[in-house]
TrEMBL record:
Record-annotated Acyl-coenzyme A oxidase N-terminal domain positions: 22-137
Gene3D superfamilies named among the record's database cross-references: Acyl-CoA dehydrogenase/oxidase, N-terminal domain, Butyryl-CoA Dehydrogenase, subunit A, domain 2, Butyryl-CoA Dehydrogenase, subunit A, domain 3
Domain of life where this protein originates: Eukaryota
One GO CC term on file: peroxisome
Protein name per Swiss-Prot or TrEMBL: Acyl-coenzyme A oxidase
Keyword Oxidoreductase set for record: yes
Residue ranges constituting the Acyl-CoA oxidase C-alpha1 domain according to the UniProt record: 283-444
Cofactor(s) it depends on: FAD
Binding site for FAD: T143, G182
Upper taxonomic lineage: Eukaryota, Viridiplantae, Streptophyta, Embryophyta, Tracheophyta
Family: Belongs to the acyl-CoA oxidase family.
Amino acid sequence: MEAGGAGEVDHLAGERATAQFDVDHMKVAWAGSRHAVDVADRMARLVASDPVFRKDNRTMLPRKELFKDTLRKAAHAWKRIVELRLTEEEANLLRLYVDQPGYVDLHWGMFVPAIKGQGTEEQQKKWLPLAYKFQIIGCYAQTELGHGSNVQGLETTATFDPKTDEFVMHSPTLTSSKWWPGGLGKASTHAVVYARLITEGKDYGIHGFIVQLRSLEDHSPLPGVTLGDIGGKFGSGAYNSMDNGVLRFDHVRIPRDQMLMRLSQVTKEGKYVHSNVPKQLLYGTMVFVRQTIVADASKALSRATCIAVRYSAMRKQFGPQTGGPETQVLNYKTQQSRLFPLLASAYAFRFVGEWLKWLYTDVTHKLEAKDFSTLQEAHACTAGLKAVTTSATADGIEECRKLCGGHGYLNSSGLPELFATYVPACTYEGDNVVLLLQVARILMKTVSQLASGKQPVGTMAYMGNVQYLMQCKCGVNTAEDWLSPAAIREVFEARALRMAVNCAQNINRAPSQEEGLYELSPDLLEVAVAHIQLIIVTKFIEKVEQDIPGEGVKEQLRNLCNVYALYLVHKHLGDFLSTGCMTARQGALANQQLGKLYAQLRPNAVALVDAFNYTDHYLGSVLGRYDGNVYPALYDEAWKDPLNDSPVPDGYREHLRPLLKQQLKLSRL
Ligand SMILES: CCCCCCCCCCCCCCCCCCCCCCCC(=O)SCCNC(=O)CCNC(=O)[C@H](O)C(C)(C)COP(=O)(O)OP(=O)(O)OC[C@H]1O[C@@H](n2cnc3c(N)ncnc32)[C@H](O)[C@@H]1OP(=O)(O)O
Ligand SMILES: Cc1cc2nc3c(=O)[nH]c(=O)nc-3n(C[C@H](O)[C@H](O)[C@H](O)COP(=O)(O)OP(=O)(O)OC[C@H]3O[C@@H](n4cnc5c(N)ncnc54)[C@H](O)[C@@H]3O)c2cc1C
């Protein structure tokens, strides 16, 4: 079929011709290195060219078929990984481009890291080779029906029996049933189970245990183990490919050496021994995953913005009153003011994710050397950035759906499934509100220590500049003044610090610290968000200050950085004004500058999303096609729906025909 006569293919080519920068170099800036671009490109094409990895029919598959398809894809991916001797980097990219949540995510993302982080050397030697070769499949069984956020409230017990040198795993109540772990329902043979350790009659709190759940012969649940899937989830396709599971134990015995004993041990005699390390290291796997979730946020948001930008560039509605061609919807200022901040956010999250990965690696090295001084920083940054980036990404994907008008609501746009798959990221690995309150508590502690002269470090170092930041005045006089990184940084620092100090003062007025924290928790959330946004803005500014090769690349990144920062100023103007960080006039100038930045971004928009280098397979959207040839694709896609298998639908004879015949009789009356 011919395109609808609007010349869409040429349209995107024209868009690409207006770019004022070298897209190839922007791909490098986005991916991190030339090597990263090449590997990602190779893996994306490998997946796209393999019929087993087809996913265009996914939202139409019934759950059982979808799950079987996930098993097939995972097994095929593994076969290719082994046959092609892919490196870990390549294998992980392959997993990314297969783009179907499944047990492998939890096996590699949580089961293996939990054993690495919490297992002794012997335990690692025993279990990791089995996991690396997929001779066992593992998951991370922490959350229960009754408790998820409150980890210390978990009820599953692991009671040591010195007579047999075993732990007895038991689910004493309905609410102690493990509930949610991915891969648990149908695929896993093993789990790292978090349970209350009881020995010598004393409850020592939550610890991790490796427990075999299913037979390695026929995959049936072992005696005393009840297992199942917890049921269908939000959306079609989407996270329904994952077997989130339920697990109950009825006095299941495991050898003592299956307690993960790196942080604490139980001796043969039943003595509990805690190594001289912070107990929060038990939460290390969550910290690791939160860091990967921040990196994933930029992937999901960049996918959505890529679809919305390309579609908005080809879609036309209305036109000048004087006549002439219709207007590309991307030219509407409202479309730009909704879409460009999301595009800028995708870049911002990419760079802060890169920095967070560095921080995580640095903290891990320090922990290995028994230096625990940066544990709090790692917790605050991973928890806060996870919360802020996932919330903004989930909202952003939904905004992109609306930006694509009616067609955005079709499954073939890719946006409904992307949203449904993505949105649980706001809940899993820590509910975003719960995580932001953790950050806020750390900020309150830091403020309370300022008076004693203790200098905050890391991302909180700016709080040490309290004398200046509490009274400084924003020096912006013209819209262009807002292009100064120093001016931007200062207002974000002043806003974050003043909000934190105000909140701390209000808490101090409460009858007790606990009551204050409780009453002011809505304000605390905003304090945490302001601090985390400061980190994202700062890391973006630092990125732009680096040496970035490629014609025009640095300029585009600077533009995106300014869009991101000034969009936040506009969105949170109330914070900036109420804390006296800027005047209403300066707020208006920021908005004026933002409009100018959008106009500069406009000719580069399509090229900026091309720099993500996504294949049409990975995007999975007829609206986001690289060639912009949207209408024929939309039209063809509709005919693939099973509802169109026959011109007359199933059910006609039973339900439509009698009705229509009856109406006929009535009309004859
Ligand atoms: C196809 C084949 C391919 C093969 C490919 C092969 C290659 C593979 C490559 C690798 C692939 C990688 C893939 C990754 C993909 C990952 C996908 C993941 C999908 C998501 C799954 C989701 C899983 C889950 O959801 S798991 C469950 C998560 N649960 C939670 O997050 C619970 C949230 N609750 C908590 O974290 C806590 O309970 C908390 C913090 C809210 C409260 O805890 P607690 O009551 O103990 O503490 P407090 O009293 O509040 O605080 C005490 C003290 O501790 C400090 N603190 C708290 N937490 C931490 C921490 N984490 N770290 C450090 N410190 C912490 C806190 O600040 C307090 O400090 P004080 O100084 O005492 O004040
Ligand atoms: C798709 C998906 C996959 C998952 N995979 C796994 C997995 O592999 N392994 C695993 O162990 N778990 C998994 N989980 C569970 C997940 O980690 C928990 O659901 C998550 O940590 C939130 O906990 P909750 O369900 O107990 O929420 P709740 O804590 O019950 O939250 C309910 C509401 O209460 C609020 N709230 C709770 N506490 C506070 C507080 N202190 N102050 C203010 N408000 C509060 C929350 O903000 C929220 O609005 C998964 C969940 C999902 C959705």
